[in-house]
Design brief:
Elements (H helix, E strand, L loop, with lengths): L3 H13 L2 H8 L3 H15 L4 E4 L2 E4 L1 H27 L5 E7 L1 H6 L1 H11 L3 E7 L2 H9 L5 E7 L10 E16 L10 E2 L4 H6 L5 E4 L5 H12 L5 E5 L3 H9 L5 E4 L10 E17 L6 H13 L12
Parallel strand pairs: 3-4, 3-5, 7-11, 8-9
Antiparallel strand pairs: 1-2, 5-11, 6-10, 6-11
Length: 313
């Protein structure tokens, strides 16, 4: 009989490519991962792995087993959901991943609703960059998470995960306000987003830290407009970004939930870009009562001014 825990390791290896990466992600030692995969090969009765230098490649049999593992793990998630639904009331921990603007603007109201409807459920929020959510969900460190994507940074399909759309946000160019402009009041960009961005091609830019979706979004939007931004500051928190813009330190692209309380020294121009937020969970877990309850509470907490997300990436 194949061991489900070892099937999880094989799936992670297919995703990450090295035993060291699997060990680091799942808090195992590399030798423990190698040992467990060796046991899985003996259980399977044929080779599942081929070593190519420092990396490990799955054999055709290994790739086929990963596909079966995805189906098995999804069925297990559905079984857990059915068992949870059969219990009386929701109780226990629900581990939630969220990014900062959603944590501030959406999640608190959702938690109030959740506490009123399911007082024995214990939501536990951990701020997690969307780029790290897939690994945390597959590893079991999170049960559900909010993730986002941008027009210039579409989210890749993640095996073993399912997403549901929540809301969309407009994007704004934040720049020091001109003396005669109505500072702090968003203006429409019109149809030529590239022209708006190129106006600031020679200005210093403020981006998120490299490796985040927000950083990639700003860089790619500027490159699509015909230039590479000259980055002066790298800051992840949008309130701090706007404070730097107000201080004349550069320009930035900021999502709708990030412009709340913008200083009057900041001029805001709406762009033809969007950030779309989804709810992510392990495939098969969408029917779990706790996940479904959190999703319903989130949707009730979304402010009316946020748009319904577009279907396309």
């Amino acid at each position: 009989m194949l061991d489900v825990r070892r099937l999880r390791l094989l799936r992670e290896l297919a995703r990450r490519g090295t035993i060291a990466a699997v060990a680091e992600a799942l808090a195992f030692s590399p030798s423990a991962v190698s040992q467990q995969l060796g046991v899985l090969e003996r259980e399977a009765g044929l080779p599942l792995l081929e070593r190519t230098g420092r990396r490990v490649r799955l054999t055709p049999a290994g790739e086929d087993l990963v596909r079966h593992a995805e189906a098995v793990l999804e069925r297990l998630e559905r079984a857990e959901a059915d068992l949870a639904e059969a219990r009386t009331g929701l109780a226990g921990a629900l581990r939630i991943g969220s990014f900062p603007t959603a944590t501030r603007a959406i999640v608190p109201a959702a938690l109030i609703t959740l506490a009123r409807r399911h007082p024995r459920l214990e939501p536990m929020v951990c701020e997690t960059d969307p780029a790290a959510v897939a690994h945390a969900l597959r590893a079991g460190d999170l049960d559900v998470a909010l993730v986002h994507e941008y027009d210039f940074v579409p989210a890749p399909r993640e095996p073993g995960l399912t997403t549901e759309p929540l809301y969309g946000e407009a994007m704004y160019l934040a720049a020091p306000a001109a003396p005669a402009a109505p500072a702090g009041t968003p203006e429409e960009a019109g149809r030529d987003q590239g022209a708006v961005l190129r106006t600031h091609a020679e200005a210093p830019w403020i981006t998120a830290t490299p490796g985040t979706l927000c950083h990639a979004m700003t860089v790619r939007a500027c490159q699509a407009a015909g230039f590479t931004p000259r980055v002066r500051h790298q800051v992840d928190e949008f309130a701090t970004v706007l404070a730097l813009v107000a201080a004349g330190q550069g320009v930035a692209v900021v999502p709708q939930l990030g412009i709340t309380g913008a200083d009057r020294a900041v001029g805001l121009t709406r762009l033809l870009m969007e950030r779309r937020t989804q709810l992510a969970f392990r495939s098969g877990a969408g029917a779990h009562p706790a996940v479904a309850a959190f999703g319903a509470a989130l949707r009730a907490a979304v402010p009316a001014e946020l748009a319904s997300p577009r279907a396309e990436a």
